[in-house]
Amino acid sequence: MTKLPGATDNAASFQFDGEDHTLGNALRFMIMKNPEVELCGYSIPHPSEAKMNLRIQTYEGTTAYDALEKGFDDLMDLCDVVTMKFTDARNDFAFAMDTQ
Q1: Rounded distance, CA 77 to CA 39, Å?
Q2: Residue 16, Cβ neighbours under 10 Å: how many?
Q3: What residue ranges in the chain does DSSP mark as E strands?
Q4: pTM of the full predicted structure?
Q5: CA 39 to mean position of chain CA atoms
Q6: What is the three-class DSSP state of 36?
Q7: H/E stretch holding 22
């Protein structure tokens, strides 16, 4: 991850190498759920380059970097919940199939 030039405490753009819409859209969604974030958007500069740019603007009181870190933490927590629910459902299904 690289912080792009022109960043301030409340507004910054970050570039992620080797990432695409999968991370961009999920991370944008999680960051926008933060009430301290005014704007968050991502773009893929060119389809032949594996780069994703993310822009974050926050209200006074928090920084763009803090919002990015919270977005990653929230996304990891969400993935943990999805993994747990999937594993539970798979185990329930396997048990049901064994008892038939």
Answers
A1: 22
A2: 17
A3: 2-3, 11-17, 37-43, 51-58
A4: 0.88
A5: 14
A6: coil
A7: helix 21-32
Q: Rounded distance, CA 52 to CA 41, Å?
A: 11
Q: Tokens representing 43?
A: 């773009």
| 3-class state of residue 99 by DSSP | coil
Sign of CA dihedral 30, 33, 36, 41: positive
The CB density around residue 60, as the number of other CB atoms within 10 Å, is 8
Each residue's pLDDT tens digit, 22-67 = 999 999 999 999 999 999 999 999 989 999 999 999 999 999 999 9
Which residues share a beta bridge with 3?
A: 14
Separation of CA 92 from chain center = 30
